[in-house]
Amino acid sequence: MDMRVNIAGVEWKNPVTVASGTFGSGEEFSDFVDLNKLGAVTTKGVANVPWSGNPTPRVAEVYGGMMNAIGLQNPGIELFCERDIPFLKKYDTKIIVNVCGHAPEEYLAVVERLADEPIDMMEINISCPNVNAGFLAFGQDAGHVEKLTAQIKKIAKQPVIMKLTPNVTDITEIAKAAEAGGADAISLINTLTGMKIDINRKTFALANKTGGVSGPIVHPIAVRMVYQAAQAVKIPIIGMGGIQSAEDAIEFLLAGASAVSVGTANFYHPNITEEVVDGIRAYMEKNGFDKVSDMVGIVK
């Protein structure tokens, strides 16, 4: 039985990675998870310069999940290349660097800086607020998505995954725009925008007022969007959103994702990813699937 998957020409040993922002850059989880067992490690978002993130409080628990407004706090690309890439290179796993920015030139600076680094893929976080478009997220406008994807593809040396926001009317329009811009793959979903009021303090639970909702509460929405995107594009899809078990991950594969990404569950169950890998293997054995691609998108 073959657990390997090919995502845009990059072969992973199995279809499981972690969602950006839920796993640091791997080091803090390495005591709990054997990183060699993961198909890939997706790093926390990195920008061209260090970002301090949003004011606190910036995390809140909500029914069925959590809400965060971290604001993509990160050390900047120089420290990341010096410290985090060498750490991950010690392991037999693919390295996917998540890239964020407030303007196209910020994304492009990071993509250019990563060109000669020993990484395998890049995931572009287009849920970042675009300062040039009144802070509308890049990923909410199909025209912006296609244009930014094309700009990145012109200079990228590694395959490019565009990470899609679910905060849109029609996810297929955005998926098609990423494909038209030359994306090698897409990943979805990022967090859904939500709000929580602290009724005792009579104020917002998060200093930012709104935050990204993740966890099991978003899972059915994510499966629906992955299915829709899989019907609309031919490039590979990495599915994510509320995976708590192998069963949740398998839903994404059957819906059309070629690989999956585990996020919020890492916070309360640090070695969940290993369980997901083992669970997918057991499901394949039980159902007679010889390779992961045999089960991708079979639910029509």
From TrEMBL:
Which CDD domains does this entry report, sorted A to Z?
DHOD_1B_like
| One GO MF term | dihydroorotate dehydrogenase (NAD+) activity
Positions of the Dihydroorotate dehydrogenase catalytic domain: 4-284
- Which E.C. number(s) belong to this protein? 1.3.-.-
Mind telling me which InterPro entries this protein's record contains?
Aldolase_TIM, DHO_dehydrogenase, DHOD_1B, Dihydroorotate_DH_1, Dihydroorotate_DH_1_2, Dihydroorotate_DH_cat, Dihydroorotate_DH_CS, Dihydroorotate_DH_I
Q: Which Pfam families would you find in this protein's record? A: DHO_dh
The entry marks the following residues as binding substrate, namely K44, N68, A69, I70, G71, L72, N125, N190, T191
Task: Kindly state which reaction or reactions the protein catalyses.
Answer: (S)-dihydroorotate + NAD(+) = orotate + NADH + H(+); (S)-dihydroorotate + A = orotate + AH2
Name the active site residues.
C128 (nucleophile)
Q: What does this protein do?
A: Catalyzes the conversion of dihydroorotate to orotate with NAD(+) as electron acceptor.
Family (UniProt): Belongs to the dihydroorotate dehydrogenase family. Type 1 subfamily.
Q: What is this protein called?
A: Dihydroorotate dehydrogenase
Organism field: Dorea hominis
Cite the source lineage: Bacteria, Bacillati, Bacillota, Clostridia, Lachnospirales
Q: Which gene encodes it?
A: pyrD
